Amino acid sequence: MKKVAFICVHNSCRSQIAEALGKKLAGDVFESYSAGTETKPQINQDAVRLMKQVHGIDMEETQYSKLLSDIPEVDVVITMGCNVQCPFLPCSHREDWGLEDPSGKSDDAFLKTIRLIEEKVLDLKARLK
């Protein structure tokens, strides 16, 4: 089974959402990991609350903010859309999803990001099948 890493700088919001949705929606096709070049003390609390509400996933139960060195070697790297230099990991396929960080914004901004990530995870699942 392929290993997919969702990465961004802080590993606290978009990459965490993608890891959770990857596990839930595509766990039969690929293993999901997330990481960043820096960590935060906790996952974004708006993301945690809305993922529980929308998908019934408690990200804090199974996930935490990780560094790139904390995850295994992967086959596919997905960057979330860093407006800075995106982190680099060796892989056989890399793509950028160009997602805006909803941190500090309204619930609507978070819900839009969650929906976009859900669509992109399902698309990646179909392509990796």
Topology of helices and strands:
Elements: E1 2-8, H1 14-26, E2 30-36, H2 45-55, H3 59-62, E3 76-79, E4 93-96, H4 107-128
Parallel strand pairs: 1-2, 1-3, 3-4
Which consecutive residue ranges, at least 5 long each, have pLDDT under 50?
none
Structural class: alpha/beta
Q: Determine the number of helices (DSSP H or I, runs of at least 4 residues).
A: 4
Mean pLDDT: 93
Strand order of the largest sheet: 2-1-3-4
Write down the overall geometry. globular
**Structurally, how many domains make up the residues?**
1
Terminal CA distance = 10 Å
Query: CATH superfamily, please?
Result: Response regulator
The proportion of residues in beta strands is: 15-25%
Structure characterization notes:
It is a single chain. The chain has 129 residues and is of the alpha/beta class. It has a single domain (2-128), classed as Rossmann fold. Helices cover 39% and strands 17% of the residues. It contains four helices and four strands, in the order βαβααββα. A four-stranded parallel β-sheet has the order 2-1-3-4, covered by helices on one side. Strand 1, helix 1 (14-26) and strand 2 (30-36) form a beta-alpha-beta unit. Helix 1 (14-26) packs across helix 4 (107-128) and helix 2 crosses helix 4 (107-128). It is globular. The model has no long low-confidence stretch (mean pLDDT 93).
Entry summary:
The chain has 129 residues and is α/β, with parallel strands linked by helices.
What would the keywords be for this entry?
4-stranded parallel sheet; 4 strands; 4 helices; 129 residues
